[in-house]
Amino acid sequence: MNATAHGVAAQICPDVSLKVAATREDRESAFRLIYSSYVQTGLCGENSSQLRITPYQLLSTTDVFIAQLGNETICTLSLVRDGELGLPMEDIFESQIAERRAAGLRLAEVSCLADRRYDTKRSFGLFTDLSRLMAQFAERHGIDQLLVAVHPRHAGIYLRYMNFDIIGEQRDYSAVQGNPAVPLCLDFNEARTNPLTNWDKFFGERLPSDVLEPQLISCDDREYFQSLFEYDELSYQSIGTQLC
To answer: What stretches in the chain show pLDDT beneath 70?
Structure first.
């Protein structure tokens, strides 16, 4: 990947820039895309702000990754490192998280994936590019295992292409309107020992260190996004100004 003024250029399309969201505008564009995608696919209800924001995305232990074409965010995902609120998926996969914490593993969950295109075949290349940035970021910051809760129909991509394993049974997930989810895990050490043939696509070319740095959300931006929360949908009271 070549460096750009704002991040790194996507391999699938050099006109697309990949980066960690750093500004209010970056984050808001990601949250708007997530909302649009989730409403379209039945993963969330409508709200007045037309943003899909979770409390985890406003923590210093979470980074939002975006792919931008010009000023438009066209693909996004978030990396939630285990922290003050734990991980989103422990709502329904508590035992899987607990046993990994007990083993002293450093965990992070891939969350809030969205693409402006709803055709998986068309969006897969850009998803791979953004996942490469996210995976190298996670490894650089000491993560031992990546976790994700995905719809069963999407699990195959993670299993065949990205070295993930299934770690539990399918369950209904209230955070996405009761849609089914299956828990997956990628162990970095195991993946290095027994890599798939495409492992080098994620780690063969090392990205510049400056694009792998966290971008902490400011207190002003956190308060701004908190003011847009839909309290009737989820409880966000655990995020407070004491974090600033």
So the answer is: 1-6, 12, 118-123, 197, 230-244
The two tokens of residue 49 are: 């702000």
Does residue 158 sit within a domain?
yes
Residues of the domain holding 188: 8-206+218-229
pLDDT in tens, 129-153: 999 999 999 999 999 999 999 999 9
pTM: 0.90
**What does the pLDDT look like over 185-226, one tens digit per residue?**
999 998 888 777 677 778 878 899 999 999 999 999 999 999
* CATH code of the domain in which 98 resides: 3.40.630.30
DSSP 8-state assignment for residue 217: P
Q: Is 225 exposed, middle or buried (0-12, 13-18, 19+ CB in 10 A)?
A: buried
What's the total number of domains in the chain? 1
- Radius of gyration of the CA atoms of the chain, in A: 17
Instruction: Please give the C-alpha separations between residue 108 and each of 15, 56, 86, 128, 201, in angstroms, as whole numbers.
Output: 29, 12, 9, 18, 21
Here the tokens at position 5 are 């003024």
Q: Tell me the pairing of strands 8-9 and 16-20.
A: antiparallel
